[in-house]
Design goal:
Layout: H1 3-9, H2 13-22, H3 26-32, H4 38-46, H5 52-58, H6 64-71, E1 84-85, H7 86-96, E2 104-105
Parallel strand pairs: 1-2
Helix pairs in contact: 2-4, 4-6
């Protein structure tokens, strides 16, 4: 573990958020994108300084608000998809029996 990694690991959630908001360092933003805090990952996803590779990874984040923000970042290169609640899909299917162009997401 390098000195920078130890320093990042010792910061509070609020300090990590502030760092993500202010940083233009692509490597630092990448490391912050791996934070256990979704609030930190959301700030990284919002940053226009975040690399395409990192944004594309965040676009598939388990926290839906992180993936939504990453999908709206201009650096995002993956296909943007609408995430739909499974219950809404079930009601649609029951009423009209349609499942075309729908992505099922466990909620």
């Amino acid at each position: 573990m390098g000195v920078n990694e130890i320093a990042i690991n010792s910061l509070s959630e609020l300090q990590l958020i502030q760092l993500a908001k202010k940083s233009s360092d692509v490597e630092l933003l990448h490391r912050l994108s791996q934070s256990s805090y979704p609030t930190v990952r959301r700030c990284v996803a919002r940053s226009r300084n975040t690399s395409r590779k990192t944004i594309d990874t965040l676009a598939c984040d388990s926290a839906l608000n992180v993936s939504f923000i990453a999908n709206n970042n201009p650096n995002c290169t993956i296909k943007k998809v609408k995430i739909v609640n499974i219950h809404v899909l079930f009601v649609m299917w029951m009423k009209k029996n349609i499942f075309q162009d729908v992505i099922l997401v466990k909620t």
